[in-house]
Amino acid sequence: MHKHLFTALAIAIVLSGCSSDYVMSTKSGQMIVTQGKPKIDKQTGMTSYIDQDGNARQINTDEVSEMVEK
Fold first, then answer.
1. Rg, Å, the chain Cα set
2. Which residues contact 60 (CB under 8 A, 6 or more apart)?
3. pLDDT at site 52
4. If you average pLDDT over every residue of the chain, what do you get?
5. Contact 69, 30 (CB under 8 A)
6. How many domains does the chain have?
7. pTM of the predicted protein model
8. Which residues in 36-61 are b (16+ Cβ under 10 Å) and which e?
9. Spatial distance between the Cα atoms of 1 and 47, rounded to a whole number of angstroms
10. Residue 59 is part of a domain; what is its CATH number?
11. Which run of H or E residues covers position 4?
12. Superkingdom of this entry's organism (predicted)?
C-alpha cells in the first residue's frame, strides 16, 4: 500500500510542473496538489489551500496523512 502511495505521490509531483509548491496525500488515498503552502488552522481543525485551478479549498486536517514540499 505504501509503495503505491509513494508512486502516486511521485507521479503527482512530476505532472504538477512548476505551478505548485506542495502535494498533500489524504487518508483515503487522494493526492492534492496545491499552489503555495497550505495553512493549518488549529482552532478550526481545517487546512486551507489553493488548488491547481486557483480555487480556495479546505480539508479537515485529520484527513491529511502527509504533506510534501515540492
1. 12
2. 45, 46, 47
3. 87
4. 85
5. no
6. 1
7. 0.70
8. eebeeeeeeebbebbeeeeeeeebeb
9. 25
10. 2.30.30.100
11. helix 2-16
12. Bacteria
What are the φ and ψ backbone dihedral angles of 19, each rounded to 5 degrees? -85, -10
> Which residue type sits at 38?
P
Q: How are strands ordered across the β-sheet holding 22-26?
A: 31-34, 22-26, 64-69
* Cell 485551478 found at: 53
Q: Would you state the cell numbers that stand for residue 59, as one nine-digit string?
A: 480539508
* Nearest one of 24, 12, 9 to 61, comparing CA atoms: 24
DSSP state of 70: -
C-alpha cell at 61: 486536517
Range of the domain at 16: 2-69
Nearest to 41 by CA among 60, 18, 22, 66: 60
**Reported confidence tier of residue 22, pLDDT bands at 50, 70, 90:** very high
